[in-house]
Records
---
Amino acid sequence: MSEDCLFCKIVKGEIPSEFLYEDDSFVVIKDINPAAPVHLLLLPKKHIRSNNDLQKEDGKIISDLFMVAKKMAKEQGVNESGYKLLFNVEKGGGQVIFHVHLHLIGGWKK
Ligand code: 5GP
Ligand code: ZN
């Protein structure tokens, strides 16, 4: 837990948010400023600042994250139409919340 981290506060329920999915390791929320009809944020509960801070022991978190993405894509009905999975890394990469999260973006009209 990082005290000033918005996503840690969301994960801990200190900032009320709708969880589309939760398990021991992750929560999934809707992006507050969606870039597409479906725009979810998949948040590991563990505070990791960015991809640069991943440790070998975090490998399971990252592989499980992609399984959550697969499940959420199906639930949102974008698995067949297709979607983007995106990590922004540090400021130059567009990261504004420094708690690792995976964007799941899709649902564009054909
Ligand atoms: P980043 O640019 O760090 O990869 O993505 C951060 C994302 O978090 C942005 O797409 C932004 O719209 C979203 N966001 C920022 N604050 C909040 C919030 O309080 N609630 C939710 N649900 N999303 C947020
Ligand atoms: Zn955090």
---
Amino acid sequence: MKKITILGSSGSIGIQALDIISKMKNDICVEGLAVGSNVKILKSQIKKFKPSAVSVNDHNDAENLKKWCKSNNIKIDVYSGVLGLKKLVTMQKVDMVLAAIVGSIGLQSIVAAIVAKKDIAIANKESLVMAGNYIMSLAIKNGISILPVDSEHSAIFQCCDGRKRSQIKKIILTASGGPFYKYSKNFSNITVDQALEHPTWKMGKKITIDSATLMNKGLEAIEASVLFGVPMDKIEIVIHPQSIVHSMVEYVDGSVMAQLSNPDMRIPIQYALTYPEKFASKVKPLNLVNVGKLEFYKPNFNKFPCLRLAYYSAKKGYTYPAVMNVANEVAVDAFLKKKIKFTDIAKIVEKTIKSHKVSKKTVLGTFLKIDCWARQYAKNLIENGVK
Ligand code: MG
């Protein structure tokens, strides 16, 4: 029986993971659940999955939840904040942590989980972008596995399972292109509602905006480089609007391996939870005759400057990707709150990167300091009006 803690259980990945777990009661059980502020969903999950501990972001929410547990005769530990996340991931009986928490807040808890020797199913790409090499070397040192949950990375993982890195010629990362890859009007007039309408995937808000700017693909290219130890210039992005081929690996002998399925996150989530086994799932079988055609296009780096910024930051290395990631988080949040235009997202990211003084010390403390600096810098840019 695998015992698991889920960070971000009220989000899109967390909910789908719990749906999978509810059908695998003999194989996986839930020990810990953490949400940000969605206490209502957490309460229903507590009733259904009976974890031994939970955590919420806010201290007052935690106090109210304790009272609710008491009045419902539920005996569990209730924690709050970053400390709460750390408690959940370091519980002795936990075997695996599903890091499905959005944004850079996940970093500290992921590091704590690795040090406590828990395997990580990682859906939090931001932490790999921020401190990828640090996380990967810490994982090797502690002898734990980092299993990708992102659909593209799960595809790459399945395509290169067991093969030597030196045999990989390149990774071909597919992108749906988001809602705007064919859009010919002025990008600065794109509204929040337009950007939230993703053609093939149903996901959380932050990642949906990242998919519209293609920053998501930039973050994923860095994530792939970190996870598979392949340099950025060997990672090629291809627009594939049907989202059937989830990514490919080209080998030195010229053969290309691909992983295909209907776009459904339950496949990569389940595989990360059950690796190396494959279990039956409820995903609709792929019918290629019905799909009819699979198209592939070159992405336009001028139309989507976030892609260019991601490659630039990754090549600069050290603390650059962390700064880019945090600036993007702040900018996306401001766009969702209608404080800035769609095209300002890339501008804020670029300005923050360019003002950054690189630090070559890559320990956890450096990344946390850089996070604070970039967050404040990007916020100031937004308050003063982006030019
Ligand atoms: Mg993805």
